[in-house]
Specification:
single chain, 2 domains, 5-stranded antiparallel beta sheet, 35% helix, binds zinc ion, protein biosynthesis, Peptide_deformylase_sf, Peptide_deformylase
C-alpha cells in the first residue's frame, strides 16, 4: 500500500483550474495514492467533493463523500474518466460552494439526476444513475474537469453579491505570484545568477 500523496487546494484564479484534463491511463498504486491524498485534502478542508484540477492535476478524476465525514469511508467514492451520459429530472436550485473559491457561494440550477459512466480507482467500469445531493456533487466536480467554475454558472444577481469575494481572490493570487517571483529572484541572486 502506497502512502497517500500530500496536496494543497489550488485557489481561483489559478490557470490550472481552466486547463484541459486528460484521461487516466494507469489504474495503479500511484493513482490510488492520488485518490487517497485527494480524499485526505477534501476532509481536511471540510469539503464533500474535490476534483483533480483543484490539487493542480490535469487528470480526469474526482473524489467525494457526500457527508464529508472521514469516519464514514463507505461513502468515499472516486470517479475516474467520467462521462455524464445524460441528465434527467426536475431542475432544482441549491446553494453551492467550492474549495477553490472560499467565501463565494451561489444558487446553482442543475437537473436532479445524472447517468454517469466511469471507473473506480481499481479500474472497475460502471454506469450508474445518481440523484439528489450526490448527483449535484458529481455535476459540480464534473464541471471542474471541463474547466467550468461556479463563477461561470452564477446568476447576474449572485455575481453582484459575490463580486467583492471574487475580487479579493484575484488580489490574493496576484500577491501570491508577486511573492513567488520575488523569492525566485532572491534565490537567483544568492546563487550568483543575477550577476551573470
Ligand atoms: Zn468546486
Amino acid at each position: 500500500m502506497t502512502e497517500p500523496k500530500t496536496f494543497d487546494v489550488v485557489l481561483f484564479p489559478d490557470p490550472v483550474l481552466r486547463k484541459e484534463t486528460e484521461d487516466v491511463v494507469a489504474f495503479d498504486d500511484d493513482l490510488r495514492a492520488t485518490v487517497a491524498g485527494m480524499l485526505e485534502r477534501m476532509f481536511e478542508s471540510h469539503g464533500v467533493g474535490l476534483a483533480a484540477p483543484q490539487v493542480g492535476l490535469t487528470q480526469r478524476l474526482f473524489v467525494l463523500n457526500d457527508e464529508g465525514d472521514r469516519e464514514k469511508p463507505e461513502r468515499n467514492m472516486a470517479i475516474i474518466n467520467p462521462t455524464i451520459k445524460k441528465t434527467f429530472g426536475k431542475k432544482t436550485k441549491h446553494e453551492e460552494g467550492c474549495l477553490s473559491l472560499p467565501g463565494v457561494d451561489a444558487e446553482i440550477t442543475r437537473p436532479d439526476g445524472c447517468l454517469v459512466h466511469g471507473f473506480d480507482e481499481h479500474g472497475n467500469e460502471f454506469e450508474k444513475e445518481f440523484t439528489g445531493f450526490l448527483s449535484r456533487i458529481i455535476q459540480h466536480e464534473y464541471d471542474h474537469l471541463q474547466g467550468v467554475l461556479l463563477v461561470d454558472r452564477m446568476t447576474p444577481a449572485d455575481k453582484m453579491r459575490n463580486r467583492d469575494a471574487v475580487e479579493e481572490l484575484k488580489d490574493q493570487y496576484r500577491q501570491f505570484k508577486a511573492a513567488q517571483a520575488r523569492e525566485a529572484a532572491a534565490e537567483a541572486e544568492s546563487n550568483g545568477e543575477a550577476k551573470a
